[in-house]
Amino acid sequence: MAWCLRVVPSGGESRSLWPNCSLSWGLEASGGGGDDRVRNLRDEVEGVKNIMTQNVERILARGENLDHLRNKTEDLEATVR
């Protein structure tokens, strides 16, 4: 399920901030400050998305390192016997 943000300016038509959204939440923008708030929220979400992508990449790399260490351990056990 994808979440979308739909902007509804005062007295205006709603428009989606992301294309191809099937689900949306309404956000009333009252005055000129609403656009800045939405832009700031979008930037913050993008920053969180980048951090999460980095975290997933690090987790995958750690898993590869653990697999490599396990293989080394199995090789050492085999040579000891």
Q: What can you see in these coordinates?
A:
InterPro entries: Synaptobrevin-like, V_SNARE_CC. It is a single-pass type IV membrane protein. Keywords: Coiled coil. This protein has 81 residues and is of the alpha+beta class. It has one domain (5-80). The protein has one helix spanning 33-80; strands at 5-9, 15-16, 25-29. A three-stranded mixed β-sheet has the order 2-1-3, covered by helices on one side. A hairpin with a 5-residue loop joins strand 1 (5-9) and strand 2. The longest helix is centred in the last third of the chain and has 48 residues, at 33-80. The chain starts with a strand and ends with a helix. The mean pLDDT is 76.
Beta-strand percentage range? 5-15%
How many distinct helices? 1
How many discrete domains?
A: 1
From the alpha carbons, calculate the radius of gyration and give it in angstroms: 24 Å
Structural class of the helices, strands and pairings?
Answer: alpha+beta
Mean of residue pLDDT values: 76
Please give the largest β-sheet. 3 strands, mixed
| Cross-sheet strand order for the largest sheet | 2-1-3
Q: Could you say which overall geometry the principal axes of the C-alpha atoms support?
A: rod-shaped
The percent of residues in helical segments reads 55-70%
Secondary-structure element string: EEEH
Quote the distance from N terminus to C terminus: 53 Å
The tally of beta strands, per DSSP, is 3
Ranges with pLDDT <50 over ≥5 residues? none
